[in-house]
Amino acid sequence: TVFVSFKNSVKHINNDNIIYSSCPSGERAMLMTKHNKEDLGFNRDKKLIIIVMGSLGSMSVTEKLKDFLETFDRSDSEILFISGQNCFEASKQFKTPSNVKILKFYNDLPALMKDADIIVSRAGASTITEIISLEKLSILIPSPFVANNHQYYNAKDINDNELGIMLEEKYLNKNTLSKELDKLLTNEIEINKIKTNLKNNKKVDGVNIIYNEIKNKGVLWVLRVKKLKKRRN
Asked: What separation in angstroms does the CA of 6 have from each of 2, 24, 41, 117?
């Protein structure tokens, strides 16, 4: 049995028993206790944008973000850039304004995502599932350095279903990121469309789907073994 996080993944896998289960990280994210952004010094009355490229970070994206972060001048928003362990030394040299904070890493990130307004991230299955489960506006920048370019197809699925926005890394710069963020900060039509789609998106109980399938297959296997033993006796 193969469990997949996205319905579109089914056509890419040569197996007769594929089950769409979503990714169990979504349920975990929803159950986590929210971390308040004020604890990190952010303003309750301003929008919080979290930018994160995984626990290790992405040097190629970090370099592209430098100009954007150093000139971010919106008075209605603040940014938390979680650089990742491999990129922190480079990113802490950025001369950012007071409404931009840079951290190396953040434990229990989904708990903080609950108090954020927009997430800018890579397009791994677990991260996307957390974003969708928490119904957060997002800009997904798929990594071009993964097997079979799977993050592109993850992000494209979200973009095509109007659950978020895909911005390919090759097009990422100060202007393109600002343009997409403006849509999610000021364009009420775009904001309401995505929020409505997120709200109406059917939540899948991946934990129980996977657990029940394994349990049922395990019971069948035990019955087969018992039957085989009985025949031998």
From this structure: 12, 12, 36, 24
- The DSSP symbol for 39 reads G
SS3 141: coil
Compute how many other C-beta atoms are within 10 angstroms of the C-beta atom of residue 169: 18
Per residue in 10-23, pLDDT (tens digit) is 877 888 889 988 88
Q: CA-to-CA distance for 195 and 217, rounded, in angstroms?
A: 38
Average of per-residue pLDDT values in the chain? 92
Q: What is the DSSP letter of 115?
A: T
The pLDDT tens digits of the residues spanning 180-224 come to 999 999 999 999 999 999 999 887 888 889 888 888 887 667 667
Q: List 103's β-bridge partners, or say none.
A: 82
Q: What is d(CA 166, CA 140) in angstroms, rounded to the nearest whole number?
A: 5
Q: Give the Cα separation of 83 and 211 in Å (integer).
A: 35
Q: What are the helix (H) ranges across 33-86?
A: 59-70
Question: 150-160 vs 125-133: helix axis angle to the nearest 10?
Answer: 20
Report the DSSP beta bridge partners of residue 19.
Answer: 3
Residue 65 near residue 85, CB atoms below 8 Å: no
Tokens representing residue 187 in the block = 């364009």
